[in-house]
Amino acid sequence: MGTNFVINVPATSANIGPGFDVMGLSLSLYLTVQARVEPEKPSSPTNITLVYEGQNSSGLSLDPNSNLITRTALYVLACSGIKNFPHPTTVLVNNRIPLGRGLGSSGAAVVAGVLLANAVASLNLTQQRMLDYCLMIEHHPDNVAAALVGGFVASYLIDVDRSGNIPESEADEAEVLRREREQKAAAADETVKLPPDNIGHFLRLGCSPKIKAITIIPQFELATSKARAALPGSYKTQDVVFNLQRLAVLTTALGRETPDPWLIYRAMEDKVHQPYRMHLIPGLPEILATFNPDNTPGLLGICLSGAGPTILALAVSDFDEIAAKIRAVFDRQPNGGIATEYKVLDIVSEGASCVESSL
Ligand SMILES: Nc1ncnc2c1ncn2[C@@H]1O[C@H](COP(=O)(O)OP(=O)(O)OP(=O)(O)O)[C@@H](O)[C@H]1O
Ligand SMILES: N[C@@H](CCO)C(=O)O
After folding, report:
1. Is the CB of 31 under 6 A from ligand 1?
2. Which of 75, 209, 301, 330 is packed most tightly, with the most Cβ within 10 A?
3. In the chain, what are the domain boundaries?
4. β-strands 89-95, 48-53: how paired?
5. Paired sense of beta strands 3-14 and 152-157, if any
6. ipTM
7. Which fold has domain 207-346?
8. For domain 3-202+354-358, which architecture applies?
């Protein structure tokens, strides 16, 4: 009898204004990866048949060595000395997260890949170790940490160059065995670069259940790499202080039982990434300058979701009305406007999951 694993990973909205590469919210929109593992012996070089169903899959590679989900899984396996999937496996992907829109599609794919490897090879990785693997592929922690653990999440990376592994005494027996296995595998295969231990650290913050995430999603993709290339190499001190002040307030403001609209609105302003990305998202300057809690009932705050182009509006009521106002700005853009869709999403407290059953 074979085994079936169903992996669900939430979409995420990173940054939330001032928290560039720091903050993430996990949202009720999912990437689902089903792995059907047959008991037979290996049948192909990687043992993977990759199938996408539904939307948000056009242009994605079905080559297991290139596809982000399976490439990540193969990397995690290689770090444990496992060259390919242990048994013939059909990987069926249903992706409801639009690609390249600032809703963490790549982070979700990476998290799914790590959970997939963990499941098919029974690696028993801890959540912390899974995060290490994710960070070797997606180098900023905001999306992957929120997708992995769920909720409103703050995260940081250790300075990998200056840190060593955590002392043996702090790791339990399973962790020590896991390290030994990985280190042996890395020694045997010099092409495998193991993640250092504990590179990412996170904290789940409070978020009022009254808050929903309105996502206005333009019908064009913006690669994160392009949006990151638009950022400057250095910042003015006052701009960094501007963000730090707001970020400190935001970490607590969203968790209050009754959210304070103007406190949150101001705390979601940013001078580190949005100003430099304005030219990539027509309509963004007008959206950020126009809507506020006084003229838009229910609105708490508004920002670019991740690297864009999606707009994230946090609100407690009037969700459809807020979305309509923001969409109208995109409609008015030159040359026929920019088509958008919108989704009113919950902020979900549960992160990625993997459920096993018999086939
Ligand atoms: N389900 C998936 N399967 C395979 N590859 C994926 C999947 N989802 C995303 N990707 C890869 O990630 C790319 C999009 O990543 P990118 O970082 O540019 O945007 P994003 O993650 O959607 O946005 P952001 O990081 O701003 O939230 C896709 O073009 C594709 O190469
Ligand atoms: N913090 C990242 C999120 C996108 O992956 C950025 O804004 O570039």
Report:
1. yes
2. 301
3. 3-202+354-358, 207-346
4. parallel
5. unpaired
6. 0.99
7. Alpha-Beta Plaits (3.30.70)
8. 2-Layer Sandwich (3.30)
Q: How far apart are CA 105 and CA 110, in angstroms?
A: 9
Cα dihedral sign, 202-206-209-214: negative
Q: How far is CA 185 from the centre of its chain?
A: 28
pLDDT of residue 138: 94
Which pLDDT score, from 0 to 100, does residue 180 have? 84
Flag residues of the chain having pLDDT under 50.
Answer: none
Among 71, 38, 37, 31, CA closest to 52: 31
Closest ligand to C-alpha of residue 99 is: 1
Kindly report the pTM of this predicted structure: 0.95
Whose structure tokens read 């002392």?
167
Question: Within 6 Å (CB) of ligand 2, which residues are found?
Answer: 14-15, 20-21, 140, 142-143, 224, 227-228, 273, 306-307
Look-up: residue for tokens 């010099």? 190
Pairing relation of β-strands 89-95 and 3-14?
A: unpaired
CB 340 within 8 A of CB 216: yes
Q: What is the pLDDT of residue 11?
A: 98
pLDDT at 32: 98
The alpha carbon of residue 98 and the mean position of all alpha carbons in its chain are separated, in whole angstroms, by 12
Q: Which residue has the tokens 């990476």?
A: 110
As a 3-state breakdown, the chain gives helix, strand, coil percent values, each rounded to 5, of 35, 25, 40
Q: Hey, how many other C-beta atoms are within 10 angstroms of the C-beta on 193?
A: 11
| Beta partners for residue 117, in sequence order | none
CA-angle at 213, arms to 208 and 215, nearest 5°:
170
Candidates 302, 284, 285; CA nearest to 293 is: 302
* Closest by CA position to 86, among listed 121, 36, 60: 121
**Any idea how long the chain is?**
359
**221 neighbors 99 (Cβ within 8 angstroms):** yes
Q: Closest ligand 1 atom, CA of 59? A: 29
Q: What is the pLDDT of residue 184?
A: 83
Ligand 1 pocket residue status of 283, Cβ below 6 Å: no
Instruction: Extract the tokens encoding 214.
Output: 């309105």
